[in-house]
Fold this protein.
Amino acid sequence: MMDHVTSRQAIWVWLFLVVASLFTAWVADDGVIFGVWTAIAVLLIALVKARAVILYYMEIRCAPWQLRLAFEVWAWGVTALIGVFWLLQ
């Protein structure tokens, strides 16, 4: 049986996305907090936001484990690759 997202969950995820977006804008604008690591912090926040959208609104969290694993490997892999390229520049 599939466990679909309820209205309450959707609202909480939406609220999280709004707060995370505002936090990202604040961190990126005031790069002093994380210094040279600001881009990595913004990248990790983007990963968490992407996971929230895909897991809850696209309901991948209820999908078969193979699809969920493929998504997680892709999301973390792309984030790590971009982060490594950023740090090596």
User: Anything to note?
Assistant: Helices lie at 7-29, 38-57, 65-88.
